[in-house]
Design brief:
The protein has 415 residues and is α/β, with parallel strands linked by helices. The protein has a domain at 27-140. It contains 15 helices and eight strands. The protein has helices at residues 11-14, 27-43, 45-63, 82-85, 87-109, 114-130, 141-149, 153-168, 239-245, 267-285, 297-312, 342-355, 360-371, 374-381, 391-394, and strands spanning 192-197, 201-206, 218-221, 250-255, 290-295, 317-323, 357-358, 402-403. It has a six-stranded mixed beta sheet with strand order 1-2-4-3-5-6, sandwiched between helices. The longest helix is centred in the first third of the chain and has 23 residues, at 87-109. The two termini are 28 Å apart. The model is unreliable at 1-19, 391-398 and 406-415 (pLDDT under 50).
């Protein structure tokens, strides 16, 4: 592999952990945030009492049917008309909304710095979401109606969904039905061939579908933690087919899913693999340059590749496209980032270093809880919903791992 004596390890690689709040979210961080709020409550009782009085006044208006509280029109949890027509359900909804508004107002009123306020907002939002009446069968009129309409079949289907998530999906709430999808059957069907294989990757060249093609080839660099065929889903959702249909010569890297034996693979190794891929693409197409695109962690790898090529005076890369890619991430970029501490990140690094790899199940769980809210669980478990089976959603649960060595710096893949 080309090297030229340039190393890519160190602080720049480590800085990408800012994009991984849940990977570095320790139990102690959550407990600390709760403790901070309890201390603020006890230390400044006057403000707490003020907001309790305000909440009590709103409860009085709810009881006497004088409250104007209404949910956000975008809040699907209370979309069922029963929440407005049934006095008991309406009062329950308004009581919940009053409690939520009271807590949010208290968080805004107490004297906290920006990081502490973000911590308090995140933790209270989790607690309030969990306390919503729609998370129970009796407090969810749409789920009750569904049970009556189906003669209880929806509840049986919901129990089946819950059982399958626990036993077959690592306890992660499903968002899709993965069963209809098969690689080479209805996923990754664009015609192509592997033109270079190494221990870390395969380079795929896709067949042209136009009479002529552009002279400059196009190399796709997918995220190391996603399956490469995210770029080649069903024919109508295939980036590969779209490019080939426009006369572009598409090539794509398919990264190997690493195991513990690959713990020493680092960012520099991935970059060197891309340099080798560029050499092969240029040899096959007889082009002096190649255009590239990178998404997520593939984009970070591509940006690091460009840095190394520039340091060597290598000008073979022409146009560059980065997608869903943050090159200077900060902890404040996400709502969970405020909860991350150095201690939490160190724990995450130790766990992955001990295994030699940050396994795909851990990453999949992180992605799932970033995407999913409690309404996904409610839909699947209380209403017995049939999960989405579109190809775009089907690949979202298919996640690869990331190597992690205790002896060298490594990037925890960005989310």
């Amino acid at each position: 592999m080309p090297n030229a004596g340039i190393t890519l390890d160190g602080e720049p690689a480590e800085s990408t952990t800012a994009m991984n709040p849940l990977l570095g979210l320790a139990r102690e961080d959550l407990i600390g945030a709760v403790g901070m709020m309890l201390r603020e409550t006890a230390g400044r009782p006057a403000k707490t009492i003020k907001h309790m009085k305000k909440f009590s006044g709103e409860v009085g208006r709810i009881v006497t049917n004088r409250s104007d509280l209404a949910p956000d029109p975008k809040d699907k949890r209370f979309a069922d008309p029963t929440w407005r027509s049934n006095p008991l359900y309406k009062a329950t909804m308004q009581y919940y909304l009053a409690a939520r508004q009271g807590v949010e107002d208290w968080v805004e009123d107490v004297e906290l710095d920006a990081r502490e306020r973000a911590q308090a907002s995140f933790v209270t939002a989790m607690i309030l979401d969990a306390a919503a009446p729609t998370n129970t069968l009796i407090g969810n009129p749409s789920a009750l109606k569904k049970a009556l309409e189906t003669g209880g079949v929806s509840l049986i289907r919901g129990l089946k969904n819950a059982y399958e998530d626990i036993t077959q999906n690592d306890g992660i709430v499903s968002q899709v039905d993965k069963r209809p999808f098969k690689v080479g059957g209805n996923l990754a069907t664009a015609q192509g061939a592997v033109v270079r294989t190494t221990p870390m990757m395969e380079l795929i060249q896709y067949a042209p579908i136009t009479e002529t093609v552009h002279a400059t080839p196009f190399l796709i660099i997918p995220p190391q933690i996603n399956k490469a065929y995210v770029n080649d889903l069903s024919p109508e959702k295939s980036i590969i087919r779209f490019l080939a249909g426009g006369g572009v010569q598409p090539f794509m890297v398919s990264w190997r899913n690493p195991g513990p034996e690959h713990r020493d693979w680092g960012l520099a190794d991935y970059v060197d693999q891309l340099i080798e891929a560029i050499e092969v693409v240029c040899q096959i197409t007889r082009s002096r340059t190649v255009n590239i695109s990178g998404a997520c962690s593939g984009g970070i790898t591509a940006a690091t590749l460009l840095s190394k090529l520039a340091a060597r005076g290598d000008t073979r890369v022409g146009c560059v496209t980065l997608m869903v890619c943050v090159l200077d991430p900060q902890a404040s970029d996400s709502e969970t980032g405020a909860l991350v501490s150095k201690h939490g990140l160190e724990l995450a690094k130790r766990r992955s270093a001990k295994k030699g790899v940050l396994d795909g199940a851990s990453l999949s769980r992180t992605f799932a809880w970033l995407r999913v809210r409690l309404e996904n669980a409610v839909a699947g478990f209380l209403r017995g919903a049939v999960y989405d089976s579109s190809s775009g959603c089907g690949q979202s649960g298919r996640v690869a791992g990331w190597p992690r060595s205790p002896r060298r710096q490594s990037v925890i893949p960005p989310i």
